[in-house]
Amino acid sequence: MTTQTAGDLLRHWRLERRLSQLELAGRAETSTRHLSFIETGRATPSRTMLVHLCEQLEVPLRERNRLLLAAGYAPVYGEPSLDSLAMAPVRDAMRQLLVGLEPFPALAIDQNWNIVDVNAGMALMLEGIDPALFTAPANALRLSLHPDGMAGRIINLAEWRGHLFERMTRGIEATGSPELIALLAELREYPGGEIELSLPAPDQVVVPLRLRHDGQELSFISATTVFGTPMNVTVAELAIESFYPADVATKKLLTSAPS
């Protein structure tokens, strides 16, 4: 994204959300004329109006700060380090969630899929991975699809690649993250067969992750948990990715494993 002015950035996000000026003006309870003047720089909006428009467009908090700076205002949303004292309640909540999901695998990630924390259940998935891939910041998608990562153990690799790439594309549309764009380009260069985005079978409810482990085939359903009503960039970009057994054999292996 090469735009610089607040009006340009606002227009970018309006087009990303596929809204006309009339539709956005209706949602924001303002006039189309005023919105047009903001986008073209003929009107100087208040900070409150800009935040209100960002809310209607569901602009990520990081990008809201960028838009406010472009308009000459100070950022509204902080970005404290996850290691800071203020973020201790978030760290505690995240750890409770991860531990509470054991023995099922789960990990905490940021918006670019960099790993923040993992639970003990992830050991099963991460075994055999080249240690070089764990160099900080270790990335969950790189660990999954790199030839020296999990890729060699994923039975439905082409299907799983297609699922992850679709999720990444949606994430790029939602956030505009340059890091995520670069990561997607990198991952597309990895071997793994033609990407499968086939129609689901009549009884299929999700795309499973099918993994080889000690001569067995394990099957997982993935789910994502985010923090509600985040008020700073750090919390807004955190998520818990968890993997639940998709069949009886997988559940039996996980729940019978020694703690």
Write down the CATH class of the largest domain. Answer: Alpha Beta
Provide the succession of SSEs. HHHHHHEEHHHHEEHEH
Which strand-content bin applies to the residues?
5-15%
Based on secondary structure, the structural category is alpha+beta
Biggest sheet: strands side by side, in what order?
Answer: 2-1-5-4-3
**Rg for CA atoms:** 21 Å
User: Which CATH architecture of the largest domain?
Assistant: 2-Layer Sandwich
Q: CATH topology of the largest domain, which one?
A: Beta-Lactamase
Q: How many structural units, i.e. domains?
A: 2
Overall pLDDT confidence? 92
Number of helices: 12
Question: What coarse outline follows from CA principal-axis ratios?
Answer: elongated
Distance between the termini: 48 Å
Can you put this structure into words, describing what you see?
The protein is of the alpha+beta class and 259 residues long. The protein has two domains: 6-70, 434 Repressor (Amino-terminal Domain), CATH 1.10.260; 85-256, Beta-Lactamase, CATH 3.30.450. 45% of the residues lie in helices and 12% in strands. It is built from twelve helices and five strands. It is elongated.
